[in-house]
Amino acid sequence: MSGPPQRTNEYTAKPVSDRYRHCLFDWLAAHAPLWNQITYRRRQQYFSDDGNVWEADFGDLYDDYAPILGKATCQQVARKNSEAWRSFFRLLSKYRDDGDSTVTEKPNPPGYWGTRDDGYELRGLVRNDLYTVDWGETRSTLEFGVGDVLKDRYDLDHQERLTLEINGNPQWNGDDGRVELVYDEAADRIRVKHPVRIQPAHLREQRQDGFTHTLQPENATQAAAVDVGANNTLAIVTDHGETAVYHARPEFDRFCRFSERIADLQSHLPDDRYSSRRIERLYDDRGRKRDHARDAAVKHAAEWLLARNVDTVYVGDLTDVLDAHWSTSVNEKTHSFWSHRQLLNRIDLTFGDVGIDVVEVSEADSSSSCPACRSEAVRRQGDEFRCQDCELEAHSDVVGAWNVLQAEEGPMARPAVLRAGRCRDASPDGGAYWEWNGHEWTPAVFGERSRPVDRTSVGEPASSQPG
The whole model's pTM is what? Predict the structure, then answer.
């Protein structure tokens, strides 16, 4: 039986003194070798004849690392390693299940936190009952203890604990979980992940504190459909004909620039090396920026739906229709940048927290017929959709959401924003077009950037690209 839902607060932190900084980095640096040795022993078991990773013995490692980390922290490293293996086995089971199409690529066993030659990832773990967070009006701190070896090395008193000043405000309140600290070398700061478990009765209340609007069940509620895609992160249509489109191409351009820089650095590596600390930082930055834009779009969309009292959303699931493509650019967009399943999971989590029911439905062929006359004599190119019979001209992702909504709810009002390349059908009240500026989603002139840019359209038939 699963416990209360878990949510994670994130902060940045820095040690309050140089002495604490040096001690902290020694403490962080000891985690990766311990993780690697546990992982190595379990991988040896996994690839042996019996393959039972749980029989790997690593109790002797505690004798080596407990004087630096503390025994409780050693146990947390082992526990996190076990969690990684259990996650791997769950994915492997889904991959091998012919009736489950959610995992299409064979997962790899847990890996290492860096190497001696390339450097280790600096991250640390603190058990939930061994740290203290003190929230103050002018300064907030995180405190935790270290092993006796480090106390002696840095002349810490018996009861003295490392103290870090933290920046950020907790979004979630609940029972503390294990804190994780990760050193971001590019920014020269510590990133703190502070998970908490929240009782279900309090979860929605806490989530809604971050929104301007809430559902008003005493008033008439609406339904909506969401078309998820790579060119446009979200396209939404309500049964009253209101629409919103979240444009993703500029962010994909940014993602590609990271990819090009990574490829350039990889081309200069020696033949026996596959990565470097600098390359790993770029991967982290690329993923963090992608996830920030995606998560912000989902939260913004939830606010937009709440303002319209939408309580049910149908989300198109493309799991069964996504496949490898001949174009590397299309594959990067649909399988690396887009992260389709992660986007669906985020929608389910965020919308569900504020009371919006999410129903996943198949989106296959949702843009291959006309929502107005049901004709299949249609032409789709990029964001442009045209019906050859009734001459409907529309935004292709709006058409996808429109078709999904009609399939679930029946005939509905004609969406207010239709044409992808013109503003003639746009309505300030009925439709909105949003673009990410690196920090927030801001209004954009509908259609002003809806045509494919060179980077993503060269060598890609538009009809083959997900929305």
Answer: 0.69
